[in-house]
Amino acid sequence: MMEGKTFFSTSEAILRELQHLQEESDDELNDHLDEMCSETNDDILHNDDNVDDIFDSEEKMMIKIIKHNDLEMEFDMIGVHEAIANAFRRLLLSEVPSMAIEKVFIYNNTSIIQDEVLAHRLGLIPLKADPRRFEYRQKDDEDGTEQDTLEFELKVKCTWNTNAHKDTTNPDDLYRNNNVYSKHIKWLPIGDQGSIYKQSDVGPVLDDILINKMRPGHELDIKLHAIKGIAKDHAKFSPVCTAFYRLLPEVTLTRKVEGEQAERLQKCFSPGVIGLEEKHGKKRAKVLDARYDTCSRNVYRYDDLRDSVKMTRVKDHFIFTIESVGALPPDVLFLEAVKVLKNKCRMFLDELNKSTT
After folding, report:
1. Residue 113 has pLDDT above 80, yes or no
2. For residue 273, what is the DSSP state?
3. Pairwise CA distance, residues 225 & 148, whole Å
């Protein structure tokens, strides 16, 4: 886990990007909306969720990073509309680019797995490569260039292990290269890629992904091309395992709960939500941290407890979780999602400007 200082700098970077997004779009969009409202019935354009509330004030907007490592980040996004939070979730899943294997050239495959199944398995292997340093390949480009393509090679041949004990029946002892793993995929630099990228910067994210099982006489000779893409076109380009959010739970005790009732109330919630304290020789329930509540609603099973608790959610406080596949850290992925949303806002405003000229 990273230090608190890094947490602060990362959250500041995310907050800064969110504020830029707000500043760039608010004034111009509001001008267009005012113009539309002057020509259209206000009831059609406005409802309880006013457009002005999509972003609250900058003073209220806040990012708090709770947990952060190379693969996972949990943070609180406070003071934004649910539409914005959901936009980031969808962008992370489908429109933040990554590198993935697109073309598979099979020169030899004598294993039992079919060519098309093998190609599909190879395409789903997450790659460690920074997509920000590559361009999108043109549709009519079959070969690719060093600016838009990474080339890999998979050459493996299964043979007998002549040093194996005569009584062994373990395939790992009897054969060599009987299991083909992602570590067997080797990067072949194109052009000047070898001087630009380190060998450790390019390749499969994990070395132990099983691709195929072979026996003596089986052989693979394959060349692979990886390109930049987005999951909107194919799921293999998704840079995250998952990205999701939930609203912060809010648990309030409406009356004193003591004794045996307090103990039962504590068991109705996830560990850490309800605590017990001694008051005048009796155990009294108190709320410790509603964040851990999973909203099981077990308390409503008891008639004598159902009126003692009020459970709600904070409507503008989102607990956001991002799990990266490993190509880029989760904080970088979120910043890339902010950039994608900013570009969409600019494109939308450009179209509005065209329609009014």
Report:
1. yes
2. T
3. 10
